[in-house]
Amino acid sequence: MGKPLIAGNWKMHGTAESARNLATQLGHHRFQEDAAEIVVFPPLVHLSVVRDVLADSSVSIGAQNVSRFPNGAYTGEVSAEMLLDQGCKYVLVGHSERRAILGESDQIVAEKFRAAQNAGLIPILCVGESLQQRQQDATFDVVAKQISAVIDLVGLEKVCQSVIAYEPVWAIGTGETASPEQAQDVHTVIRAQLGEAGRSTTLLYGGSVNKSNAAELFKQPDINGGLVGGASLEADEFLKIAQLVEA
Ligand code: PGA
Questions:
Q1: How confident is the model at residue 30 (pLDDT cuts 50, 70, 90)?
Q2: Which of 107, 113, 143, 209 would bridge with 226, disulfide CB 3.0–4.6 Å?
């Protein structure tokens, strides 16, 4: 198993100044470098500010979105190569907000995944079921289908080289977390879908992770870290969460 990963998704929050302040607080912290990898996902326009602040720290940066096209006349889009050029190591693909609000289909998510990986970025593929789908007992099928769409396009090996974040939609930004058992159950199914090639693939849990619930989640055998939204906007809270995975 690789190092655990703690990812902070800042979503569409903050100014350049608040991004600089938050990054500065994280940059001052001395993480136990072997224990966990820490990565933050600022809004695109603040990437270079955050990159410069964190240049001498062990915190990596990533982007929240990427174009599925390599380059060309795609007004408003940002390519994987541009993100790499900005110092990004990771990129989120298939976040439920992009799937549900911005209309990204499984096919588009798979193409973004491929574009990111071809350029040398590590995609964090987000998957998860809605409340209705959970109530209909469709959770495992929904997650498997979201992952299969990417496997169909790039192959299993490539998916196993990425990071997969299980984020139940009903737990994102709601304060309601999946129980450690619920999360582990889905992670078991994901691990099984990846098979032998995915034994050491990093699997994250996301959805209202905070300093009070993180320890129990991170103790689960197939949860290798967290994708943290709201709680990543407060340096103290995010650092506490990171320390829990380091512990
Ligand atoms: P949340 O967001 O921690 O605020 O629930 C998680 C995410 O959307 O990645």
A1: confident
A2: 209
